[in-house]
Amino acid sequence: MALPAPLHGVIPPVCTPLDRHGEVDTASLTRLVRHLLDGGVHGLFALGSTSEVAYLTDAQRGIALETVRTAAAGRVPVLAGVIDTTTPRVLDHARRAADLGADALVATAPFYTRTHPREIAAHFRHLRAAVDLPLVAYDIPLAVHTKLAPELVRELAEDGTLAGLKDSSGDDGALRRLLTALGGRTGRHRGPAPGFAVLTGSELTVDAALLAGADGVVPGLGNVDPAAYVRLYDAARAGHWERAAAEQERLVTLFSMVDAGPESEMSRSSSALGAFKAALRLLGVTQRGSTAFPQRPLSEEAVAEVARHLRTAGLLPAQQD
Amino acid sequence: MALPAPLHGVIPPVCTPLDRHGEVDTASLTRLVRHLLDGGVHGLFALGSTSEVAYLTDAQRGIALETVRTAAAGRVPVLAGVIDTTTPRVLDHARRAADLGADALVATAPFYTRTHPREIAAHFRHLRAAVDLPLVAYDIPLAVHTKLAPELVRELAEDGTLAGLKDSSGDDGALRRLLTALGGRTGRHRGPAPGFAVLTGSELTVDAALLAGADGVVPGLGNVDPAAYVRLYDAARAGHWERAAAEQERLVTLFSMVDAGPESEMSRSSSALGAFKAALRLLGVTQRGSTAFPQRPLSEEAVAEVARHLRTAGLLPAQQD
Amino acid sequence: MALPAPLHGVIPPVCTPLDRHGEVDTASLTRLVRHLLDGGVHGLFALGSTSEVAYLTDAQRGIALETVRTAAAGRVPVLAGVIDTTTPRVLDHARRAADLGADALVATAPFYTRTHPREIAAHFRHLRAAVDLPLVAYDIPLAVHTKLAPELVRELAEDGTLAGLKDSSGDDGALRRLLTALGGRTGRHRGPAPGFAVLTGSELTVDAALLAGADGVVPGLGNVDPAAYVRLYDAARAGHWERAAAEQERLVTLFSMVDAGPESEMSRSSSALGAFKAALRLLGVTQRGSTAFPQRPLSEEAVAEVARHLRTAGLLPAQQD
Amino acid sequence: MALPAPLHGVIPPVCTPLDRHGEVDTASLTRLVRHLLDGGVHGLFALGSTSEVAYLTDAQRGIALETVRTAAAGRVPVLAGVIDTTTPRVLDHARRAADLGADALVATAPFYTRTHPREIAAHFRHLRAAVDLPLVAYDIPLAVHTKLAPELVRELAEDGTLAGLKDSSGDDGALRRLLTALGGRTGRHRGPAPGFAVLTGSELTVDAALLAGADGVVPGLGNVDPAAYVRLYDAARAGHWERAAAEQERLVTLFSMVDAGPESEMSRSSSALGAFKAALRLLGVTQRGSTAFPQRPLSEEAVAEVARHLRTAGLLPAQQD
Prior knowledge:
The structure is a homotetramer of 321-residue chains.
Chain A: E1 9-10, H1 26-38, E2 44-46, H2 58-72, E3 78-81, H3 87-99, E4 104-107, H4 117-130, E5 135-139, H5 141-144, H6 150-158, E6 164-167, H7 172-181, E7 197-200, H8 206-211, E8 216-217, H9 226-237, H10 241-255, H11 268-282, H12 300-312
Parallel strand pairs in A: 1-8, 2-3, 3-4, 4-5, 5-6, 6-7, 7-8
Protein name (chains A, B, C, D): Dihydrodipicolinate synthase family protein
Active site (chains A, B, C, D): 138 (proton donor/acceptor), 166 (schiff-base intermediate with substrate)
Keywords (chains A, B, C, D): Lyase, Schiff base
């Protein structure tokens, strides 16, 4: 399907449920997509960081993307992460994603190797030229250890290389500078880069990003409570900023589940992914809550902590005892 | 004077004008304070990073603080930065600041040495016990290379060690988590830490911070256009979020002056400080725009670029030629 | 072939020559392997960082490894890098490498995702259990942004998970602590971890590493002048430390070729790889000196600078003009 | 006294013993200096990082320096650290150090503020011009978060600004490149920068640094066992490299005391400083082993661990039980 221009709204990075053998649980993934569509989301981002793309083999990536696309059934666009170290490897993923019917591609700067702004520009331009799908740049310095410079994003937006930016840098000041440079909150959409979409991956400051002129959000926590992010988005679109902020605050509280797994036992990303996946199991969306190897599983106590957060948020019934 | 509880509003980190010998230009500094008070600011932060505190000798720090306090004349509270590597050295500054009549102290985590959360907690507790002034924690990882953990700040807020936080971490997600943990936008002020003030130092996302429940802002750019930050603050207080966002956007555009000095020639902090100080000279507030040694001066072209930004913002009359 | 225990000597990370289409130039790669074997190297490391493994598709990785193994013809062991983000993806590479006849595998800690010591330990243990080849840990924080803790390496050495360590961390102090903990320069080989090999990737301090008890070196510059690294190694083995240091010093001078490409134009890794590959072309070993996309090519001036370094080192005849 | 040219040998950064009130224990410091002189050291570095300079008030810095200088009694040169954020503040320390009879100054790049190579160069040139004492650059990125570029050090060495470099960067490859550029192990001393001294602060790889052509070492652990570092140095000077390496290996084992304090309780620098100071007390050199506030003290178990290391090294008699 053609992307809306600009791409906008709530576009969760879809978790990848796994079975007991560590393979993609397609039935659970299909249910998860329905859960998200029922929540009113505007798009789906398969094979992102929250999808544990870094832990999926090429075969598993294909299965996950195909499952999401099939379950989406053309109701919303499906973006596909094409995450790998450099252009030649990313291209292999991009061609597979195109074959599987992705509506847009999401690519990071090169990683593992050191890189350079001129190399990053060439990387995105080559991807765009080689595969005929809209291309979204994924700014995620925590993973790739390079921040996409606002000037570079702007240049690639204005020359038509990029259809959008997913900003997971956490640098809301730089995001504001980019939004302002691209025409600001009003005089859009987007002055010098028509149709360019700015999506924030900072799920704790979505009200702020929308107030600043962002078009949408890619929230990992949106797997757990998609309807709340849609309410937040709708409130913002209607100019009800305090209602949006109140929704955001509720989600910030819910987000605390990411600390369930102790730092002495696992990485912060494993704790967060484990919490989201445990929540999906507790909500009955998926069959299991396990994360991919070599991440460590949440303990029973940690899962109980996740459940407590779901009850506090009203997503599970209050416990009786 | 007693601090308002909580401390709130626009509290610029006051630039330190220098004379041709690199000494504090007290006449210019006095005029700058008046410029800020005329703009309607709610407090003054002397001896912060934007004050070039790291470049001022102890004697110069004393002169700068005394000048600011005298010029403020009790109209607004004066916060004093007590920036040094560890507790014993910070204490020396704190006692001098108390003697000079500061209304509150602003201290960072230890730096130069490596540190630890338990050492940081002891540091703030000892400062608070030793000098009888409200203490604000200054979270500025770009300078001290340690981020104050939200749990630590919360603990020190709740036990009364800290009267507030100045958050210059740029991590608006963490700030949101702290604000939510401390009672959120409503149920304040501040549930478990009554009177605790949260001030953002992120001058490009002030509307967002206020929407999230922050009490005020410490904007470097507020030296140049204090009235605009006051308008932004007032709009937010009145619930006019889109007006606040429009003011913010104008300030984001004005802020671009910080790139006037080229990266090949000077540090990013020198370029920003040079731009603010050049602007103050161009506005007729200070006599000179020079930064402290060993920072490199802005070129004539860079100063012309600053002037262009001032004209675009309507702070200088449009040029005729 | 069975690995010597411990693996030792000069084991260059073999560059991957490319043709004009960016495909592996197998004829040039075969000549490069002969050049290395003629230089007296003790092993070959295919698909390492210097091999531009991060830029090679899976198909290209297979061709490169097969070419190296065939050209090596069993004369020295061939180690294969299995570089990917996490265990499941690394396993795919490991199985292909085993099928292609690699004599050992070289794997990093997980990257792109954040990780944790316990996850890293599980990662290496699972790789070792799943593929029956000796496993070498590759400590390269510049690429993966995690340093392998000496205690962890020691634990995995002592329990037989690891056959060796390739230390490209640049942290020679930590390496010394590990060597000392594993029995030191004498009481080897290797006290609690019999046969464990410590290889340094720090090509500028090989004399130091050998003096400290390391078993060998994996020098990128060894592509250009393998015989010199063999001389260095032999001198050290014979206890002629000042001769070793003199060889090292000559190689440090030659290494300066890595700065040929200007920082304003390309990443530091692209400049280094470009210099090594330009040198191989100038020496007549390979047909072309190009690096993989999206790296930028060296300019003619930069190549001339590389040539100058080769002449100074006596690897090319002095120029006449 | 005039510095030897080049400055060379073992120059420990002298610990600063504290009394129960946290003040400089001058009697203990005097004994420590004698302990070091008895060990045969070639110089003393007061007010370095290991001296806890970042924790000492200006008054305490003066007392410590004066005590060291008096106790040294002209037998060896006394270098004084002048550690502060920027040039104007460093100058204040430099003038005091000159007044107190320091034989040379040791200064870092600016810190707290961001800086730039051109600002760093101006910083060192101004210090050298303003105070008539030999100036040593202190490269300690762990503390100041800037690495001194080898080209910059070389430029400042060749133009006479710097009398030497204390390299605590841990980057032995960069050090080797600098040494090679300055004439190498032989053709010294120092080709283009006559008399320039290269001192390593990497106390675990001193044999390597001396083999590479360094002139000396500034070892924190040298407080505990100065004689061993002098033996290492003498063996290296005599060309007995394996004897030097054996001494180094023994010191690497002794160095493990720095891990006595657990990471969950204190910073790594506090653990190391606490171990060195505990060792000095256990050896009877100083009266107390306490570190400066807000560092946390070693537990009794940690001190027992330090004692165990001293016994293993033969510095304390074996325990009888």
